Amino acid sequence: MATTVDVEAKVEDLFAPPINEDDDEHDSKERVLQKYFLQEWQLVKSLLDGIISHGRVSDFSSVHRIRSIMDKYQEQGQLIEPYLDSMVSPLMFIVRSRTMEVGASDEILDIIKPICIIIYSLVTVCGYKAVIKFFPHQVSDLELAVSLLEKCHDTNSVTSLRHESTGEMEAKCVILLWLSILVLVPFDIASVDSSIACNNELGELEPSPLVSRVLGFCKDYLSSAGPMRTISGLLLSRLLTRPDMPKAFIRFIDWAHEVLSSSKDDVMGHFQLLGVVEALAALFKAGSRNLLLDIVASVWNDISSLGKSATAARSPLLRKFLVKLSQRIGLTCLPYQLPSWRYVSRTRSLGGNVSSASQKLDQLDAGATSGVILQSMQDDDVDVPEIIEEIMEVLLSGLRDTDTVVRWSAAKGIGRITSRLTSILAEEVLSSVLELFSPGEGDGSWHGGCLALAELARRGLLLPNSLPKVVPVVVKALHYDIRRGPHSVGSHVRDAAAYVCWAFGRAYYHADMRNILDQLAPHLLTVACYDREVNCRRASAAAFQENIGRQGSYPHGIDIVNAADYFSLSSRVNSYLHVAVCIAQYEGYLHAFAEELLNSKICHWDKSLRELAAEALSALVKYDPEYFANYILEKLIPCTLSSDLCMRHGATLAAAELVLSLYQCHYPLPDDKQKKVAGIIPAIEKARLYRGKGGEIMRAAVSRLIECISLSHLLVPKKIIRSLLDTLSENLRHPNSQIQNAAVRALKHFTVAYFGDGGPSDATTMYLDQLSNQNVAVRRGCALALGVLPYQFLATKWKDVLIKLSGACAIEDNPEDRDAEARVNAVKGLISVCETLTQEREQASALAEEDVMSLYLLIKKEVMMSLFNALDDYSIDNRGDVGSWVREAAMDGLERCTYILCKRDSLSSSARPLGVEHLPNLSNDELVENDSRLLFDTNLATTLVAGLVKQAVEKMDKLREAAATVLQRVLYNREIFVPFIPHREKLEEIIPNKKGLKWGVPTFSYPRFVQLLQVSCYSKPLVSGLVISIGGLQDSLRKASTSALLEYLQGEDNDTRKSREYILSSDVLWVLEQYRKCDRVITPTLKTIEILYSKRIFLNMQAHTSLFCNGLLDSLAIELKGSKDFTKLYSGIAILGFIASVSEPVNSRAFSHLLTFLGHRYPKIRKASAEQIYLVLLQGGDLVSEDKMEKALEIISETCWEGDLETAKQQRLQLFEIAGLEMGINLKTHTVRLKNEGLKQATSTDENASYSSLVDSTGF
């Protein structure tokens, strides 16, 4: 066997670039197949060579490797067929030779089972017919295979999982397939059976013992639930139909009669029933007509009664086998002959068809029907038995079955039997099939009927003179869609109807299909563009493509096929808005497309499809605006008041989109029609269609209609204008965010279109007053509404608007009134108002300079400060960190306000032109003097960058990416230069001006931003955000951020390292002081300190170490006091352990803190403290004298700290005495002081006082 290194080397060679390879187009099929299977083949061949060289499978992993490779070719088995001989023949040779050597013993099973797994995997990929051609078939192998099957017959699979199979099932299947080849030997099997030599009592035509054994095995396997059932049926069909097996055949039929007549209702009986029916179907396929005619009556009686039983009603697979067996009985009763009346196409090849299409029609034989060879118009004399009528009834009933597999089998059966009937009887069959398309039939009947029509057309049994009555039915099936509750059925019918059209294209000559294709093409393309299901769109496009290719020239056929290809139709949006629009430009499709959208799609049950259909309808307007204005719009307006919710919603949206599209096409609507459109909304409100089911989606549709009316500048009476404004105000108060957003979009254009000279005086006041409404939905909508109001609405009350919106950005005082969405909308509205005011005031030069400056100063002092405060919104609820929505909106707002202030500075100052990239070199005094006169000063720039940097290192990927992107735009904005950014060069080095940087990836962003720790003005905010990531719960984020920080702290030399540690320690103490008692920051900060201490950070800062430790202990005394947060307590105890190990005076204080925790009310905390004290004492030091060390360790290790609290306190007291410390517990501070302070001892508290609440809150 090849070594692993050799195999890997061969595989690596396969991935080398090809050299001088020929074009696939000029290669032979074998070379192309070998080229594309070559990579795996080399690996498979090396594995097979190892198996062949050893004569068995020595490494079972090679079997799984081969099978996993073969599984990739399940749908492309033809790629493996060139290699079957080199794979199957050697493996079967091993099976045969080793069986001859070892015999049918237990050892042979261990040898053949892994090999059979490989062979059976090839059978599942390529099919048994392709594989068994390479099985050995010597006559002497028959007894060998039977003895091997007998040995395998008694073994059972240890598992039903395929990947865990050890080969029992596969071995049985392979041996049965081998026997199916061996029983075809052209000799009497009795002459092969060696056991007959000792038995002379065998009667004439009696089956030999060898055959009896095979029959016994097969009968057993017919009761199996696995693939052995099908293969044993194949074996029986080949064995029993031999000329020397008449008695065995009759006995099997009698046994099958007993099984079919029995009333077993157990699981094994059901599988046996399936196996017998499947075996009979195989017998009727393989046997000769003379042999089978004698048993037709008895078998038909059995299956007729079985088909009517409850067992068949419960089993789709049994019904499928019964239908298959019925059709084969019918084929047996009818003699095989090629009907003279069937349709035969003149040209069977595509190339010949295309060439013939270019020829003139007058070259055709004038005396013959185009495309049909009529050998004889008279029916042959065929004797049709009466049983055929019963069989056809069964097959027609099968077309109505609820399962697709049964309908498909019945359709093929109808096609096969009809091919042996007279033309008159074939017409009756067609009439019966067409009856399946009556309105009272279900979707199963329509689907089965389409399959039957396709089979008749494929076999030339559907004559051209029958097409006029077939085509209308097929057209109806192409659009079949029946609503059932909240969904619809019919996609399988439409798919099958497309299959019928595909079969027409392949079956008929182009002269016969010319008129038919003209009828089908618009419907096929309608389904291809507008069907909801992707399989139906692709099936219809494939049918159209087949007809274009087979039927010769067709107007714009190639262009349409190129537009509606397999991939372009995969997206529903692309199909509706691009492919359909491209096809509609050609003659004959526009009106068909519009009718389909109008009649079927805008009233569809799927809301998203109705919205898409409205857009698709408007996209077609440009080809014929008059048709859409006079016909489509007239039909849509009454539908907006329909009692059907889907219809009125779709019609309202479609009318809105049509009006806007007509305006964009510069098509003026008459005044009366404009009034009709404007009257839709009052009519809807008068009919009270906002109420009840569907009121929400109607509100959104009405908002869209108002938006489109406004954009189109329709003539609207003043009374209706006020009514529309009230409608939008109502929609703004709705709790549904989609309705609010639709209303906001409509209000933006509505106020501009109809209140250009100034709006109603009460509108702005109403929105301002409702900003403090207790209803959160009202606050959300009004904040957005203020943001889209034009300048005329804001001119007189802009100060109140800015101040009120700034206040709405802050977290509400009352916890019950807090709403993150309201604050987000307030931030968005505030920024929009600022932009509206500043843009209008820049254009209005007549305004006083003081009035303009007051606006900008208010933006600087109120708006910017509100946005900076919004960056600290870390509110949470049951949805998680909802404050992140506010922070994200605030970052966008800060960027836009920064541009507003900087643009104003640049206009008022001539010293710095627009677009410069750096400030001029000014002295500090000049800079400060210049700074005081500017709106955007150094302080504002520092605060802005610091806030963004903090967000750029926190735990949420989305916010990190948003913050870094905003900072990048601020640094490199080419239109508006942002000045006074401290350490701009360093920032530009960290944040380059490149697109596509992955700031959301922690391993990319953190190593860059930690470099700002050496910049004093950014380091503190940076640390406050960084500790959230390092001390957080997300493991991958913690690793990336910790690694980046540690790499930064390493430094280039020792001095740099100490300097960075000192700066970081100062910043950490600042965070602890700044966010005192804020567990959101303090808990991860303590966790971060613990991690850094474990990496020996902060322990070697010389004099600074003591300062840092004392500051840290002061913070711990405050944070750990009365805390119930286990994470915080654990981190604090670990930090105390590290500080207690420092050889400084501060270690006594930390050790005292640790001893205090030994009397904590929570047992887990006492245990954690004891562990830390034990580790501290083991490290030595001067905390406990050497003579008392052993005693202290003994107390720590032998005391049960999770036990009784009083016992723990007594042991703690001993430790205080050993350490030379005196415990003084103040009930308010819980601090421990040294012995010389002499404080009194306080009474202890009950450990169970709040333990239950702790358990509830922490989950312990």
Automatic annotation (TrEMBL):
Q: Where is the Tubulin-folding cofactor D C-terminal domain?
A: 943-1128
Query: By its UniProt entry, which Pfam families does this protein fall under?
Result: ARM_TBCD, ARM_TBCD_2nd, TFCD_C
Gene3D superfamilies referenced in this protein's UniProt entry, alphabetically: Leucine-rich Repeat Variant
Which keywords, in A-to-Z order, does the entry hold?
A: Chaperone
In residue terms, where are the HEAT repeats? Answer: 391-428
Q: Which residues form the Tubulin-folding cofactor D ARM repeats domain?
A: 317-558
State the InterPro entries in the record.
ARM-like, ARM-type_fold, ARM_TBCD_2nd, HEAT_type_2, TBCD, TBCD_C
Keyword field contains Chaperone? yes
UniProt-recorded name of the protein: Tubulin-folding cofactor D
Q: Which source organism does the UniProt entry give? A: Rhodamnia argentea
* Gene that encodes the chain: LOC115756382
